[in-house]
Amino acid sequence: MVDLPAPGTRVSLRYRLPAGAVPPHTDVVGHLLDVGATVRVRNRHGEVVDVAVDDVLAVRVVPELPVRTGEIRNLEHAAALGWPGTEQHWQDGWLLRYGLGSTRRANSAVPLRFTSHAEIAAAADWYASRGVPALISAPDRLFRVPAAVPVEAENLVMAGDLGDATGAPEMTLTARPSASWRQVNRRDVPDEVLTAVVDGVVVFGELAGAAVGRAVVTEAPDGTRWVGVSAVHVADDVRRQGLARTLCAGLLAWGREHGATRGYVQVVADNTAARALYESMGFVVHHRSRYVRAAHLLETQSS
């Protein structure tokens, strides 16, 4: 039997076709979804190819396709619209977001176009007038953080095609977080922040008071409609039962029904369990991001 790498790995897999086929074997290139009795590979078109493990002839790990800077910018734009806080302001190609001081994501500036001292200083003033420190979201290649400046909360931005994502009939969908949703996700994030979206649609999913999450569909400047999954929590007494996977699959299917063709999640870099879950669902690391304080940047520039 051929040794197979972990789900989420991009591979070139050669497999045997049914008896009498000409040629007798073929290849598929894509990301491994499952490696059990049936090996499942999602190709770049989002199609899933199922192969009996006994028919696998050879497998080779293939490097990830390089991600262009424009692709990072498009995804970051869509994600910013999907978690925009309660107040937004465009500042020369930067999107400044304020969300009542709740969560870094809703209270940070996203440098989607230009970056100079002027944008950093303007962001610092805008946030100071709202009584919160100016945080800048610094995605790979969109914002260069000087080596001497400390960063916070490194995240992996993972992305994948939706392919054949199927719904979860047992999942309840609501436009706002319900009381039972809040019982599972106890983070003190105001409803105004959770339900905010710009030019998109948001939903809250729940599996019988055991697992909850949020999904939002927004559009990037290149026309791609993305569904972002966030705020996923599973009750302590029912963990390790596959509920997070069922919930996320249902939220991704909801996104597809609302026109999304690709999905993304933002995972804290050291959360290996979450990363493994999303990799097993066909997501791969698209780029990384972290937060940096504008005050630290301005101090560095003035010294």
TrEMBL record:
The keyword Hydrolase does not apply. The keyword Lipid metabolism does not apply. It holds the Pfam family Rv0428c_C. Keywords: Acyltransferase, Transferase. GO terms for molecular function: acyltransferase activity, transferring groups other than amino-acyl groups. Residues 146-299 form the N-acetyltransferase domain. SUPFAM superfamilies: Acyl-CoA N-acyltransferases (Nat). PROSITE patterns: GNAT. InterPro entries: Acyl_CoA_acyltransferase, GNAT_dom, Rv0428c-like_C, SH3_Rv0428c, YpeA/RimI_acetyltransf. This is N-acetyltransferase domain-containing protein.
